[in-house]
Design goal:
Layout: H1 10-22, H2 37-40, H3 44-62, H4 69-74, E1 79-81, H5 93-96, H6 111-131, H7 140-165, E2 168-169, E3 184-185, H8 187-204, H9 218-231, H10 235-246, H11 269-273, H12 276-279, E4 287-291, H13 306-310, H14 339-343, E5 350-352, H15 354-357, E6 362-363, E7 366-367, E8 381-382, H16 392-396, H17 420-423, E9 427-428, H18 429-432, E10 449-453, H19 454-468, H20 471-484, H21 493-499, H22 501-512, H23 518-532, H24 552-560, H25 589-593
Helix pairs in contact: 1-6, 3-6, 3-7, 6-7, 7-8, 8-9, 9-10, 9-19, 10-19, 19-20, 19-22, 20-21, 20-22
């Protein structure tokens, strides 16, 4: 017997739906329209349009100013919030990350975006899933493909939700009237259902390199299914499904030069892979799932904003001094030495840690600048010392430092940068440089973006091998990625055995920086450690019952990050702090309070847990 759990966040599924449909004048009387759901969502075109709407929301997640996925980077080991001009919950989690905080605000945190947007998209997926059986399709194959795509997109949202918020309301069918009787459902039972749905998707979504249109692909379904298999400890199944993608012949790693910059001899295949015009090119066989963001595309976000989000705020007046005390840099456009035109106008929305800037690139005491991903001789990777003092005032005043490389200290060992958190760090120029012809101070123009690509599939299989203790096979998969990038050191089986999951985490940091939702992936690994009892690289073991008190996510962030709980203070006076219970984010107060006839549980560590009740278990 199927248990149907009727769930609704009133704010989201009624008010938000009305706002999305009608705009700010949604209360104004309007003539009745013939374009009602009953009339439009009755055929293949109508339901495909709903699927496309859900796919389009990936742009907002990845390709916007203060893109929400950056929040997953900031709550991890690879990066922190660099907005040091204010105190935010991105920094001081212990004191400012609260259920009733500004949780969907560009200046504070975007955790609330994930709650709101997930349920909005789940609503649309459920519309397709509920109506597909009665709609008209040219073929049964197309009906199943549209259904499989909707299953995939719903599973994607629940993957993020459950690894961000834990037990959450589980909406499995279309809601046609307001409801306020939500109950939290166990994340474990949600995972089981999502696996079943994705197994259907794998059978029915078409094989092929469909990234050009931004559609769901069979490979993307298998890729996400592998992550769910890992959560469930089904490591052999994860190996099998990732091997089908890797060995299937449709998707292959890009290993040869291609595309728009192929003729630039000093560049390399890694540079080629991240050129906007190359990401969805037929020659690029690596992308499994893309979000499409281009000029003249409906719903265009106005640019990926990667340079604005990812690079230092070096042009801030007075931020960096010359060794003789003058203001050194300018981010004004059309300077004689145009740094912003060449690199972008950054404000450090997300700031890499020492670990991701430096530590992961050092092997046996040697920093690998031959690795294409960390190559400075051709500008793939940028350090601050590669920039030069460009303030026009320096030239006007005859300052000797005009045009010379930046220095962090003068000969008296005095710091020349007033805010090293926001204004001084290295970054992967090859990945975040997106031409922006609309702005004199470029932030990152429109462009397609990878959501899943084959390099991560290799690393998922390597991870599965590590969980099983098959060190040589794991090393081979990691080295496949390293060989493509011209890394100088190749992992041995002993290396992987000694480092264990840290080996794949390090390679993910190198390969997937500014691509993966790092916090979510760390939480997934924390769940696996706790559910299986497998020892972490430190030798420590965890228990699932106490995951909010003691977990791998917290230990990893504190071990590797040079910010959290290290007494690091921003110029504004905020400290970077976190606690083990932050493995799950606070459920927004408005969702709980508006749910008057049910109970949405609050996560442990936040105010409101006294009203919690046992989570429901979804069963079919």
């Amino acid at each position: 017997m199927k248990k149907i759990i009727h769930l609704k966040v009133a704010f989201l599924l009624v008010v938000a739906m009305a706002l999305h449909a009608c705009g700010s004048d949604f209360l104004d009387p309007k003539p009745l329209s013939i374009y009602t759901p009953e009339n439009v969502l009755t055929d293949e075109a109508g339901l495909q349009a709903v699927v496309d709407k859900v796919l389009k929301e990936l742009r907002t997640e990845y390709c916007t100013d203060q893109a929400p996925f950056l929040t997953n980077m900031k709550y991890s080991d690879v990066a922190v919030d660099g907005s040091t001009d204010k105190a935010t919950p991105w920094q001081d989690l212990n004191n400012q990350m609260l259920p009733d905080g500004k949780n969907n605000d560009f200046a504070f945190t975007r955790i609330g975006w994930y709650w709101d947007n997930a349920y909005f998209n789940i609503k649309n997926c459920n519309v397709v899933i509920s109506r597909v059986a009665d709609a008209t399709f040219k073929t049964e194959e197309r009906r199943n493909e549209v259904l499989g795509s909707a299953y995939f997109l719903r599973a994607y949202r629940y993957y993020m939700l459950t690894l961000q918020f834990g037990d959450v309301p589980f909406v499995v069918e279309e809601l046609t009237e307001p409801k306020t009787d939500f109950y939290s459902t166990s994340k474990e039972s949600i995972w089981v259902k999502m696996i079943k749905d994705l197994e259907f998707s794998v059978k029915h979504v078409r094989e092929g390199n469909l990234v050009l249109g931004g559609q769901v692909t069979k490979a993307a379904c298998k890729h996400l299914l592998a992550k769910y298999y890992l959560l469930e400890g089904r490591f052999d199944d994860a190996i099998k499904i990732t091997s089908e993608v890797i060995d299937g012949g449709v998707h292959q790693l890009c290993t040869q030069r291609f595309g728009s910059d192929k003729s630039i001899a000093e560049k390399d295949v890694v540079w080629d892979m991240f050129r906007i015009e190359n990401k969805s090119a037929a020659e690029n066989t690596e992308g499994l799932l893309m979000t499409i963001d281009r000029y003249a595309t409906e719903g265009n976000t106005g640019g990926v904003n990667t340079m604005y989000n990812a690079i230092p705020n070096f042009g801030q007046t007075g931020a960096i001094k010359t060794p003789n005390g003058a203001n050194g840099l300018s981010d004004a456009a059309k300077n004689e030495i145009g740094l912003v035109e060449k690199y972008g106008r950054g404000i450090a929305r997300v700031r890499p840690t020492y670990y991701s800037q430096k530590q992961v690139w050092v092997t046996n005491g040697v920093e690998d600048f031959n690795d294409y991903r960390h190559r400075t001789d051709n500008g793939n990777w940028m350090t601050m010392e590669m920039l030069v003092y460009n303030s026009p005032a320096l030239k006007k005043n005859g300052n000797e430092w005009y045009g010379k490389p930046l220095q962090l200290y003068n000969d008296k060992n005095e710091l020349l940068c007033k805010d090293t958190i926001r204004c001084w760090y290295s970054w992967p120029h090859y990945k975040v440089w997106v031409p922006d012809p609309d702005r004199l101070q470029p932030k990152g123009g429109p462009g397609d973006w990878y959501i899943f690509r084959l390099a991560e599939t290799y690393l998922l299989r390597a991870e599965a091998y590590i969980w099983k203790g098959e060190w040589e096979k794991a090393a081979k998969d990691i080295n496949t990625i390293r060989q493509r990038s011209n890394a100088q050191y190749m992992y041995t089986a002993n290396d992987v055995e000694n480092q264990k999951i840290a080996a794949v985490l390090d390679e993910r940091a190198r390969e997937l920086y500014y691509e993966e939702p790092r916090k979510v992936e760390l939480t997934r690994m924390a769940v696996i450690f706790a559910r299986t009892g497998i020892a972490a690289p430190s030798g420590k073991t965890y228990t699932y019952e106490k995951i909010s008190d003691d977990n791998f996510w917290y230990d990893r962030v504190n071990e590797v990050s040079d910010f959290y709980n290290k007494n690091v203070r921003t110029p504004y006076g905020n400290y970077y702090t976190c606690s083990p219970f932050h493995i799950f984010w606070p459920v927004p107060s408005y969702a709980i309070n508006s749910n008057s006839r049910g109970v949405i549980n609050q996560n442990k560590g936040y105010p409101g847990t006294d009203k919690n009740v046992p989570a429901l278990v979804y069963q079919e």
